[in-house]
Amino acid sequence: MYRNINFLVVLYGCETWSLTWKGENKLRVFENRVLRRVFGLRRDKVTGEWRKLHTEELNDLYSSPNVVRLMKSKRMGRGRHVAHIGESRGLYRVLVGKPEGRSLLRRPRRRWEYNIKRDFQEWEYGVDRAGSG
Question: Which of 26, 67, 94, 100 is the most buried (most CB within 10 A)?
Fold first, then answer.
């Protein structure tokens, strides 16, 4: 039920997101919070007290890929699609194009194209910041 309802709502439009590490961490925290509610508390075998499940225990109980990994795979799929449609199409120009004119003096925003390149590198090397990759 969690996968069918929450994943659809949380990941709606994730193919175009440009997340920073902080945003990815917020998604992981949300997922762990929901899974702790789904699986409930556990009684500690040694002390007999009720306690919350640790992240590793949640990962063992819920064997599906985490929300960030699923988001990255969807984003890479969209990146493949955009790469195949060609530069002359409007979608390609919107997603990887650069705006004209002068920009404000500030740190540049993280671009969708950069995230796609980083996702492919992480996927190739099996790197996952949560430690499960």
Answer: 67
